Amino acid sequence: QVQLVESGGGLVQAGGSLRLSCAASTSTSTFSSYNMGWMRQAPGKEREFVAYISWSGGTTTYADSVKGRFAISRDDAKNTLYLQMNSLKPEDTAVYYCAARYLHTIVAAPTTTYEYWGQGTQVTVSS
Question: 27-82, pLDDT tens digit by residue?
Fold first, then answer.
């Protein structure tokens, strides 16, 4: 079991930056045992993949729409996942969710399938 709490969302103008954080807590394992990701959901749209980082931090993957603008990272000493978002666009407006999957859980779609989710944080980009 892992609990995830996102923070750092808000209102920003187009071209601006935000850094999202996701604080993880677990009583049965360590944060470094989890593959982590960021997903987002805009109003009226399905939830979509944003970024993924492996349990070791050695692999990162991004959606084409954010590649070159967003950066995912993790600090295992702080049990925290980050998403640095630069050059924000109005189409980045969405609720952003942090998600986790235990490293030994095998799934067909490893970057978009997760076992645990945070409650989400709103990001609004004005034009």
Answer: 778 999 999 999 999 999 999 999 999 999 999 999 999 999 999 999 999 999 99
Q: Which pLDDT score, from 0 to 100, does residue 28 have? A: 76
Tell me, letter by letter, the H, E, C secondary structure of 8-33: CCEEEECCCCEEEEEEEECCCCCHHH
Q: What six digits make up the tokens of 68?
A: 């070159």
DSSP tag of 2:
-
Q: Give all strands (DSSP E) within the chain, no chain letters.
A: 3-7, 10-13, 18-25, 34-41, 48-53, 60-62, 70-75, 80-85, 94-102, 116-117, 121-126
Whether the CB-CB separation of 51 and 63 falls below 8 Å is answered with: yes
Whether the Cβ atoms of residue 4 and residue 22 lie closer than 8 Å to each other:
yes
8 Å CB contact between 49 and 57? no
Alpha-carbon span 82 to 18, nearest angstrom: 10
pLDDT tens-digit series, residues 104-118: 888 888 888 999 999
